[in-house]
Write a structure and sequence with these properties.
Elements lengths: L9 E6 L5 E5 L9 H12 L13 E4 L14 E6 L8 E6 L3 H7 L4 E5 L6 E6 L2 E6 L8 H12 L4 E4 L2 H4 L6 E4 L3 E4 L2 H6 L2 E7 L10 H14 L32 E2 L6 E2 L17 H6 L7 E5 L9 E5 L11 E4 L2 H9 L12 H19 L7 H11 L2 H5 L2 H6 L2 H6 L4 H10 L12 H8 L3 H5 L22 H6 L13 H4 L5 H12 L16 H20 L24 H10 L5 H23 L4 H4 L11 E2 L5 E2 L11 H15 L10 H6 L3 H9 L6
Parallel strand pairs: 1-6, 7-12
Antiparallel strand pairs: 1-2, 3-4, 3-6, 4-5, 7-8, 9-10, 9-12, 10-11, 13-14, 15-16, 16-17, 18-19
């Protein structure tokens, strides 16, 4: 095989029904970049419409990209693509996890793993360089993820990286995860692994990833990258005044400062000022525990952890001695929704319990929930599982749908009192599918159908349901007005798009952000001040297309969309400008395939257009504007003020959109992609431009192609 750069050149294919293990050529898919893009091509070619997520004919693709394993900062992501069990039309979707699994897969010589079929008995997949074997996992079945990882490591050694499911995935819980390491979860596809009787994948590699560019050029580019990188979610402004900082914002995730410690480290470590010119202090910028929990978390923090090749370290690694009381290891790690989702399940709040003060309970409670969810492998659906529970409980629906004895057996008094040990009962019922209550983890659409949720649920802003497809808000109209709102219209699950958020959430002053937006999108009017939104325009549509494309690009390269793109910088001497061409520069150096920023963005648009075509084929719908891209009513209905009167849209202080304006926005975004402006479906001309005449012909044969 000719030398390849960036890519290993090999895709591992495993058929669990037949036991056949084979190798495919990565580069025949190179027009789709890697990771998510290549996975979409595989799903289009090989999974027919009408296949359901838990059918043996479904495939699950574990993908890396050409930057993974090269040392590019924040490039340790694994993209997982399959049909999504919680989707009402079983839409194709991707989930993502960090950690070290993806880089280990590259070091073992593989760009991707494509799994199909179903094993007769539980198995796990053992990958040691080019030696691949399907192993018996009956002795692991029924175990949590922590034990499963240890069992795989007992065979392969502690260097092995493991992706596994817990009992939730085994029991085909729609809201289940695939997890690697102590806290890196990919939400939504755990049940697909379970349906294939695949308990885990263990990987150990002794190879490396070759890059095309010379070391000096690579070092210079890496130096540039490290000069523009910020803190978690690319926030480039510290949360408190610093001697070096021109700006600060108390809501920033750049929390490092003098007098703030990793208090449970031995000895405690002071985060310090973290001057952005000091590259050795980058990992101290994001003391995420105090951001997520408040000051009390300082005493529990051992350190910050994270993913392969990432200097940011956004996972709080805590020592919580109280966990031993519940039979859990006292060390726990997580970030963001891993902590927030257990709080959401405790929607009445976590209060003092079991001898913990209210301040300590605010850490101990979520730690209990995170430990349970990660071990059982339960997905929170970006926090929606707690809001679904809240609606069903507060409206009295649970009393109607649960058998009386089951309702009485649930410790509601703990929920009411804010006792977080309620979570122990909650996650056990969910993971083991105990009783009618376990349907809370079917996913919002299926749950609402089963329990007959009313319009007050869908249309009430408090429950944050974005679409009648049942997926929740994830940085929508509160994040850039129409920009965030329109981005959320194009997903088959929560949007998972941080490209726009990493720019507008940088915490730079709005005047400066607008100036930079003008340079990227053609006009400062691409961006509005928070909660001071103006009507739709073409520049916002460019921002939307760029954000959707960059998210697809990051999931294909694979780099972290929670950090990339590098639109801004913490350095005053750079006038706070980042470099939006870094992805293309790294790609060209890594692979030797010279692509400009514009050309790489076009490749990402090709991938996203294919995703759009798959969605259209799966839905069997010609008009995606009406069938797919609509929101629930609260998004486009005027909010009411404290006096009960409606606040008109485009009034300062409201995030409500206007339906007519949103429809204009859809049209403008369709135009940017070259899709049909009436239906939002890819046109023949668009598909042929991207070299996908076969896709156009398939859609035409089904009567789905716009005319």
């Amino acid at each position: 095989m000719a030398a390849t750069y960036g890519y290993t050149g090999k895709i591992l294919r495993v058929n669990l029904t037949t036991g056949k293990i084979s190798t495919d050529d990565t580069l025949k898919y190179k027009d789709f970049i890697g990771g998510e893009g290549m996975a979409m091509k595989i799903m289009w070619d090989e999974v027919a419409p009408g296949v359901t997520p838990y059918a043996p004919e479904n495939k699950i693709v574990f993908g890396t990209g050409p930057l993974c394993g090269t040392g590019v900062p924040c490039s340790g992501r694994t993209n997982i693509t399959s049909l999504l069990p919680s989707s009402p039309f079983h839409g194709v979707s991707s989930s993502h996890m960090g950690g070290y699994f993806a880089t280990e897969l590259k070091y073992s010589g593989w760009d991707m793993i494509v799994v199909e079929g179903k094993a007769a008995n539980p198995v796990w997949l053992r990958i040691e360089d080019d030696k691949v074997k399907i192993e018996d996992a009956r002795w692991m079945w029924g175990k949590g993820i922590f034990d499963t990882q240890a069992m795989v490591a007992s065979f392969m050694g502690k260097e092995a990286q493991v992706a596994a499911i817990g009992q939730a995935g085994e029991n085909l819980v729609n809201l289940s995860v695939i997890r690697t390491g102590s806290s890196h979860s990919a939400g939504g596809h755990g049940g697909v692994m379970g349906s294939k009787n695949l308990k885990a994948i263990g990987v150990k590699g002794t190879g490396s990833v070759k890059i095309a560019g010379d070391r000096k050029a690579w070092a210079e580019l890496d130096k540039l990258m490290m000069s523009v990188i910020g803190a978690n979610n690319q926030m480039v402004v510290p949360s408190s005044p610093q001697p070096w900082a021109e700006f600060n914002d108390k809501s920033s995730r750049w929390t490092g400062r003098k007098g703030l410690y990793w208090g449970a480290a031995n000895p405690p470590v002071e985060t310090g000022e973290c001057d952005p010119h000091d590259m050795q202090s980058v990992g101290l910028r994001t003391m995420k525990a105090v951001f997520d929990f408040g000051p009390q978390a300082e005493k529990y923090t051992v350190r910050m952890g994270g993913c392969s090749h990432c200097p940011i370290r956004c996972h709080s690694q805590l020592k919580v001695p109280q966990l031993s009381k519940y039979g859990m290891d006292e060390y726990v790690s997580n970030t963001c929704m891993g902590w927030f989702s257990p709080r959401g399940v405790m929607f009445k709040g976590i209060k003092a319990f079991d001898g913990n003060s209210e301040a300590d309970a605010a850490v101990v409670g979520p730690a209990i929930g995170a430990k349970l969810a990660d071990d059982y492998g339960v997905w929170c659906n970006y926090g929606q599982i707690g809001r679904d529970l809240q609606y069903a409980y507060e409206t009295g629906l649970l009393k109607k749908v649960l058998p009386a004895d089951e309702y009485a057996s649930i410790p509601w008094e703990k929920l009411e009192k804010g006792d977080a040990t309620f979570l122990i009962d909650f996650y056990e019922r969910v993971a083991f599918k105990k009783g009618e209550f376990s349907h809370i983890a079917d996913g919002t659409y299926w749950l609402a159908e089963r329990w007959k949720f009313g319009d007050d649920f869908w249309n009430g802003k408090v429950y944050k349901v974005w679409s009648r497809q049942g997926f929740p808000v994830h940085h929508s109209n509160e994040a850039g007005g129409q920009v965030g709102a329109l981005i959320s219209c194009f997903s088959n699950r929560d949007a998972q798009n941080h490209s726009h958020m990493n720019f507008i959430g940088s915490k730079l002053p709005i005047a400066l952000q607008k100036e930079i937006a003008g340079e990227i999108f053609g006009s400062p009017d691409a961006l509005d001040a928070p909660s001071d939104y103006k009507p739709m325009n073409e520049y916002k549509a460019r921002f939307v297309k760029w954000s959707l494309g960059r998210s697809m690009l990051h999931n294909s390269l694979t780099v972290c969309n929670w950090m990339w793109p590098m639109s801004v910088s913490p350095l005053k001497e750079r006038k706070y400008r980042g470099d939006t061409g870094l992805e293309a520069k790294f790609y060209s150096l890594a692979t030797g395939i010279q692509l400009s920023e514009k050309e790489l963005d076009e490749a990402a648009a090709r991938c996203f257009t294919l995703f759009r075509a798959i969605t259209q084929r799966q839905m069997g719908q010609k008009d995606l504007r009406v069938a797919h891209d609509q929101t629930t009513e609260w998004v486009t209905h005027a909010e009411k003020g404290k006096d009960g009167k409606e606040i008109p849209q485009f009034t300062k202080g409201t995030i409500a959109m206007e339906e007519k304006d949103m429809e204009l926005g859809r049209t403008l975004v369709y135009r940017e992609f070259g899709w049909d402006e009436k239906t939002g479906a890819p046109t023949r001309a668009c598909l042929e431009k991207y070299g996908m005449a076969d896709v156009a012909q398939d859609l035409a044969s089904r009567g789905l192609l716009p005319v």
